[in-house]
Amino acid sequence: NRKCLVIRKVQATQRDSCFALFKSIISQWQLYDQCKINKTDLTIELPNGSIFLFKGLDDPERIKSIANIDDIWVEECTEVNDFDFDQLTLRLRSKNPYNQVFCSFNPVSKSNWVFLRWFNTMDSTPRTDIKNTMVLKTTYKDNKFLPKEYIENLLEMNETNPVYYRIYALGEFATLDKLV
Fold it and tell me: What is the 3-state secondary structure (H, E, C) of 12-33?
């Protein structure tokens, strides 16, 4: 019986990203008919009573009124700003144990607040001095479900687009903009 808030920067991107992903996985696990899926409000209630709310930060004030949030997943965390992120962490007021915030992102610019908050500026390694925080770096090598063609395209970027290769294949921070 947990309430999980799934966040993207823009609400309109939820339907075709996180919400679609959840529906697909629920279907693969043959649980679709057992869940209450509201395609208008973008909510999913599992058979065990856990609820997933899919919201955007277009209007952060709307998030403030959601009560008893146990967990938050911020997809593409580098797209939100640090002020909005801090506001999200203040929403974890549930009395259930193990309230958590999960952030997923591709490592873009080192000037992004995500890098500045959770990584060492000298060597780009995850900081280990932050209490209650864990950084888990994964790459395409950790995803056994990727199609062979996708991996081939990713590896080809080492020659065609080295910045993309560093970000999307190696999981390294690199700058996408202002390149000559």
Answer: HHCCCCHHHHHHHHHHHCCCHH
The pLDDT value recorded for residue 175 is: 79
Structure-token pair, residue 18: 């996180």
The owner of tokens 């952030």 is: 103
Rounded Cα gap, residues 166 and 174, in angstroms: 7
Nearest Cα residue to 135 out of 146, 120, 154: 120
Terminal-residue alpha carbon distance, the chain: 51
Rounded to an integer, what distance in angstroms lies between the CA atom of residue 118 and that of residue 55?
24
Q: What is the pLDDT of residue 45?
A: 98
* Residue count of the chain: 180
Type and span of the H or E element at 149 = helix 148-160
- d(C-alpha 32, C-alpha 46), whole Å: 9
Q: Which two tokens stand for residue 32?
A: 């679709």
CB-based contact 58:10 (threshold 8 Å): yes
Q: CB-based burial of residue 29 (10 Å sphere; 0-12 exposed, 13-18 middle, 19+ buried)?
A: exposed
How confident is the model over 47-57, as pLDDT tens digits?
999 999 999 99
